[in-house]
Amino acid sequence: MDWVTFLILFPLIPAVILLFTKSVQLQRVVVLVSSALIILGSVGLACNYMQAGGTYLPISSGFFNGLVILGDIVLALVFLYVCRKLPIKKYWIPLMVVIQYGMVVTADLTGGIPETNRYLYIDNLSIVMALIIGVVGSLIAVYTVGYMQHYHEQHKEIKDRRCTFIAAIYLFFFAMYGIIFSNSITWIYFFWEITTLCSFIMIGYSRKEEAVHNSFRALWMLLLGGLAFSVGIMYAANYCGTIELQKLVTMKQSLVIFPILLLCFAGMNKAAQFPFGGWLLGAMVAPTPSSALLHSSTMVKAGVYLVLRCSPILQGTASGAIVAFIGGTSFVMCSALAISQSKGKPILAYSTIANLGLIVLCAGIGTSFTLWAALLLIIFHAVAKALMFISVGTVDHQTGSQDVEDMHGLVSRMPILTFTMLIGLGGMFLAPFGMLISKWAVIEALAVRNPVYPPIVIFGGSLMLFFWTKWMGTLISVVGKQPPIKAKGIGFDEWLGLGGLSILTIAACVGFPWIGHYWIQPLYGWNPMLSERIEVSVALMLGLMLLPPLIFACRWKRLVHTEPYLSGLNVENKYEYLGSLGAPRRWSFGNYYINKYFSEAKLFKGTIIGTTLLWILMFFMENL
Amino acid sequence: MTTTSTILVILFIILAPVIGGIISGGDRIISAKMQSRVGPPIVQPFYDVLKLMGKENLVVNRYHGDYMICFLIFTIVSGCLFFGGNNLLLVIFALIVAGVFLVLAAYCTNSPYALIGAERELLQMLAAEPMIILSAVGLYVVTGTFDVYGIANCQHIPIIYLPGVFIALTYVLTIKLRKSPFDLSTSHHAHQELVKGLTTEFAGPSLGLFEIAHWYETVLLLAMIFLFFGSYWILGIILAVIIYFIEILIDNINARIKWELMLISAWAVTLILGVGNLMILYFVFHI
Q1: For an engineered disulfide with A357, which of A104, A331, A371, B115 has Cβ 3.0 to 4.6 Å away?
Q2: How far apart are CA A594 and CA B247, in angstroms?
Q3: CB A272 within 8 A of CB A352
Q4: Which of B138, B64, B132 is nearest to B102 (CA)?
Q5: CB of A414 closer than 8 Å to CB of A398
Q6: Nearest by Cα to A330 from A395, A275, A254, A250
Q7: Residues of B with CB below 8 A from A469's CB?
Q8: Residues of A in contact with B114 (CB under 8 A)
Q9: Subunit contact A533:B147, Cβ cutoff 8 A
Q10: Is the peptide bond before B181 cis (omega within 30 degrees of 0)?
C-alpha cells in the first residue's frame, strides 16, 4: 500500500476504536501502537519521496471524490447539529454552514467543478508537514492518555468524555494528512472543515460556560474562513477552470489573484492572524494536549501551509505586501501583548500567533530566502511550542497553577521538568537555535527590500526576547532547599511525551543546517547557510552551547556561601529580614508586565480595527 | 579563516581587555576632572580587577557565578565573530545571548535587588536592541553586505548616507555602556537606589569577570561605531574617541531617569532617526 494512502486513512482506525474504548490501559495500548505506526509511516514517506521533488500520485478519483462529497454533506449536517442549541439571534452561524456547503455540494453534484485526475500531490513541503504531524503529533497523543487521567482526577465535576477527546485527535490526524497531500482544493476544503470540527469539540470539552462560549466563537470565526474557502473554490472553478492548487499557483497572476487571496484569507484565519486572534486565545480553556496539538504545532500550521502554497502568486504583488503586513502586525502586537500576560498558556497562545504572523510575513513576501526561513520557523515552532505547552500542562497538574509567578524557583522543586521547559524556551528564542536563526534569515532577506519590514521583525523580536527571558529567569531562580514536589504524579506516557519532544527540539536545533540543506534547498533552491563563514560561526555557537552544562557540572572550589543582601539583618526565613524596628519584615518579588503600554486594554481594540482595515484593503489592492 | 582574520581575533582576545581597561581608566580621570577632582591613575581599573580576583568568592548559591562565566565567554565570542569578519547580524545575536546570560545570572541569585536589576536590564535590552540590529540593516543597505570585512572595506563612507542611524545608535550606546542617565540596571557608581542592581550578589572574582566582560563589550560597541567609516579608519578612531567623550559628558551632567522615559525615548529615536533615515534612503534616493 502506498505511504500516502496509508497515512491519510490509517488514523481513522484508532479513531473508531478509541471512541468505544473506556479502559485506560486499552487506550494506552491503542495509542502507543498507532502512534508508532504513524511515526513509522511518516518517516517511511519521507525516505521514499524526499529526493523525488514534486510528484502527483495516481488515484482512482471517481470513488474517492464521491466519498468526499458524501463527507461534505455529513459534515454540514454535523455542523448544523452542534448549532441546534444556539439562541436564535445567532442564526448566522448555521447560515454560514448552509451557504458554504450549499454552494460546494451543489456545484459538485451538478458538475460545476472541473474534472481532474490529479487529486494528490507531494513535495518536500508536504513531507516536512507530514513529519511534524506524525512525530510531534504522535508524541502529544501519547502524552494525552496520561494527561486526561490526571485531568479527570483533578476536575471531578467535569463529565468524563475522554474517549471522544482522544478519538478526535486521530480524526484530526486524518484531516491534517488529507490537507497536506491533497492537490484539489475541494478535497482540502473537506479536510479543512474537519479540523474546524475537531477544534470545536476540544475547546468545548469541559462544557463549562466559558468553554462553550469560546468553542462557538472559534466555530464561527473558523467557519468564516471556510466560507471564504468555498467562495474561492467557486471562483476558481468558474473563472479559472481548474481546482488544482498546483495549477492555480502557476497561472497568470492577474487571473488567479482573487481566489488565491480568498484561500489566503482562510489560511490566515486558521492561523489566527488578527483580527481573528480571539479564537485561539479563547481556545486555551481546552485541555492542554489540544492546545499543544491543534492550537500551536499542527492545525494552525495548516493555515500557514496554505499561505505558503499560495506565495508564488503573492510574490511581488501589492496584495502580497498587505498579507505580509498583516502577518507583521500580528507578530509585533502579539509579542507586545504577551509581555503583559502572567499565565503560562496565554503567553504561549500570544507567542503562537506572533510566530505564525512572522511565517505569514515570509510567505507574503515570497522570495526563496524568506520561504526558506518560513519553513524552518514552522519546524522549530512546532517542536519547541509543543514541548512548552505540555510542560506547562504538567506543571499545572503538579503544582495547581500555570501562572509564571508561581513558577518562581521551579528549578529547586522540579529540576527535570524545569530542564525540559528550559530546552523549549531556549529553542524558542536563543541564538544559535532555530527561531533566532530564522529571524536572522528573515532580517537578512528583508534588508534588501522596502525598509518597512525589517523594523517590524526587529521590534517584534526584541519584545519576544523580553518575555521569554523573564520566564526563563523566573524558572532558574535558586530559592534554596524546598520540599521537592515528587514527580510521582507524572506518569510514563507524560514522560515519554516530554522526553521525546525535548530530544526532538535539541535534534532540530543541532540538525537545522542539514534540514536546510537536504529538504528546503531542493524546494526553494536557496540556502543562506551556503556561505562558509556563516556555517563556521553557527557551528561555533552551537558548539559553545555545550559549554554552559559543562561549566555547571564543575564544582568550583573556594566558594564561600553567604546570604543575599536585604538591607537589613538576614533571618532564618529567606523571604524576611530584620527591619530597623527589630521586627522581621517580608519581601516579595513580581516580574514586570509593563501594563502601562502593553496591556490588552490598551492594544487589543486598536489591533483588531487596524488589521480589519488591512484585510479589506488586501482585496481591493489589486483593483486600485 | 584567513591569516589576517586569525591575527585580528587573537589581537582582540588579548588587547580588548587592555584597551577596555584603559578606556575605563581614562573615563574615570576625565570624570574626575569634570568634577574638579584629581582622579585615580589610568591603570586603576586593572588594580581593581586584580584585587577583586584575589578576594574570596562570596556566593549566594553555587550556580550564579557560572552564568557570569557564560556571559564573559559569549561576549568574547561575539567580539571574535566580529573581528573574524563574520555576519554582523550573527555578531549582534551572539551579544544578545551574552546579555541573556547576564540577566539569568542576576535572576539565579534570587535576591530582591538583583531581581529588579535583572528586570531593568531586560528593559534596557528592549530599549537598545532594535536600534543596534537596525544599524546593521542600515549598513547593509549602504554597503550591500552583512560581512564585517565587506563593510569595513567599503569604498564610500556609510555615515554620509546614515547620519540618522548613526546618531540613534549613539543614543542607545549610552544604554549599552551603562552610562547615566540610563544606568538603570547597575551602575559604575558606588550606591544607587538598587544597591548595585543586578550585580548586587556578585563579589570577588565573579565581579571581576563582570568588569572584564564589560571591557570587551565596550571595545566591541566602539568597533561597531567604527564600521560607519568604512575604510577611513583614522576618521573612525577620531570619531570613536569623540563619541566616547560625549558619553562621559552625558554621564556626568545627567541624573538617572525612569525606565518609561528610557524605553519611549529610545524607541522614538529608533523609529524617527533610524527608520526615518532608511525610509529617506529608499524612497527619496532609491538606494
Answers
A1: A331
A2: 28
A3: yes
A4: B64
A5: yes
A6: A275
A7: 100, 103-104, 122, 125
A8: 564
A9: yes
A10: yes
pLDDT at A494: 87
Which amino acid, one-letter code, is at A449?
R
The answer to whether A246 touches A183, Cβ cutoff 8 Å, is yes
Angstrom distance (rounded) from CA A43 to CA A57: 18
CA A26/CA A10 separation, integer angstroms = 18
Q: Is the pLDDT of residue B20 over 90?
A: yes
Give the lowest-confidence range in A405-409, A503-507, A527-531: A527-531
Taking CA B46 as the corner, what is the angle to CA B44 and CA B49, rounded to the nearest 5 degrees?
110
Q: Could you tell me the three cell numbers for A555?
A: 564544582
pLDDT tens digits along A231-263: 999 999 998 888 899 999 998 888 889 999 999
- Domain residues for B219? 3-283
Q: How many CB atoms lie within 10 A of CB B118?
A: 31
ipTM over cut 0.90: yes
Per-residue pLDDT of B208-245, as tens digits, reads 999 999 999 999 999 998 889 878 888 888 988 999 99
Q: How many domains does chain B have?
A: 1
> What 8-state DSSP symbol labels residue A159?
-
Exposure on the CB side of residue B233, measured as CA atoms within 13 A: 7
pLDDT digits (tens, 9 = 90+) for A554-601: 877 778 888 888 888 888 888 888 888 888 888 888 899 999 899 888
Is residue A451 reached through a cis peptide bond, with omega within 30 degrees of 0 on the bond before it? no
pLDDT top residue among A624 and A35: A35
Which DSSP string do the residues of A406-418 spell out, in sequence order? GGTTHHHH-HHHH
Across A525-546, average pLDDT: 73
Residue type, B48: D
Say which of A466, A547, A564 has its CB closest to residue B111. A564
Query: Which residues lie across from B147 on neighbouring strands?
Result: B87
For the CA atoms of A185, A186, A187, A191, what is the dihedral angle to 10 degrees? 100
pTM of the predicted structure, to 2 decimals: 0.94
- Residue in the block written with cell 525606565: B259
Which helix H or strand E contains A92, and what residues bound it?
helix A92-109
CA dihedral sign, ordered B88, B91, B95, B100: positive
Cell of A201: 469539540
Residue among A583, A29, A128 nearest A382 (CA): A128
More confident residue, B20 or A529: B20
CB A533 to CB B86 under 8 A? yes
Query: Between residues 233 and 272 of chain B, which touch chain A (CB distance below 8 Å)?
Result: 260, 263, 267, 270-271
Biggest CA-to-CA distance, chain A: 89
Q: SS3 letters for chain B?
A: CCHHHHHHHHHHHHHHHHHHHHHHHHHHHHHHHHCCCCCCCCCHHHHHHHHHHHCCEEECCCCHHHHHHHHHHHHHHHHHHHHCCCEHHHHHHHHHHHHHHHHHHHHHHCCHHHHHHHHHHHHHHHHHHHHHHHHHHHHHHHHCCCEHHHHHCCCCCHHHHCHHHHHHHHHHHHHHCCCCCCCCCCCCCCCECCECHHHCCCCCHHHHHHHHHHHHHHHHHHHHHHHCCCCCHHHHHHHHHHHHHHHHHHHHHCCCCCHHHHHHHHHHHHHHHHHHHHHHHHHCCCC
A56, β-bridge pairs: A121
- Which SS3 state, helix, strand or coil, does residue A613 take? helix
B111: nearest CB among A469, A536, A565? A565
B219: closest CA among B83, B20, B12?
B20
Gap between the Cα atoms of B204 and B54, Å rounded: 7
Q: Report B:140-199 residues touching A (Cβ under 8 A).
A: 140-141, 146-147, 195
User: Is A536 a residue whose pLDDT tops 80?
Assistant: no
Nearest to B12 by CA among B228, B219, B227, B151: B219
B209 in reach of chain A (CB within 8 A): no
